[in-house]
């Protein structure tokens, strides 16, 4: 009697195929198919889809990372931004932020932050 062939699971077949592909393709191949996949996803999904997966990713990340992680990536991002942009970039963004804040806050808001700033400065003396 012939030996009964062992059947490969779908997971095993996928792993075997992935390993064979990795041996025969370079970084450019993976970048190209990733770009194509990203474009196809963008064509078939709307803003809500991306907001939803972003929220899920943010929640998962917050469950596995602590305050130090966020401080570290924030610092790295700030350094990268400051290396990539000049003074005009910050002036333009500051102006946009100031305009947006003035549209969404009234006189009371500015009086309150002015008082807080005054108290903070008087504590320094």
UniProtKB/TrEMBL annotation:
**Region (Disordered) residue spans:** 1-125
This chain belongs to which protein, by name?
Glucose starvation-inducible protein B
Q: What phylogenetic lineage does the species belong to?
A: Bacteria, Bacillati, Bacillota, Bacilli, Lactobacillales
Reading the lineage from the top rank, the first entry is Bacteria
The UniProt entry, under InterPro entries, shows: Stress-induced_KGG_rpt, Stress/Virulence-Domain
Pfam families membership:
KGG (PF10685)
Where do Basic and acidic residues bias regions lie? 1-90, 105-115
What is the protein's species of origin? Pediococcus acidilactici DSM 20284
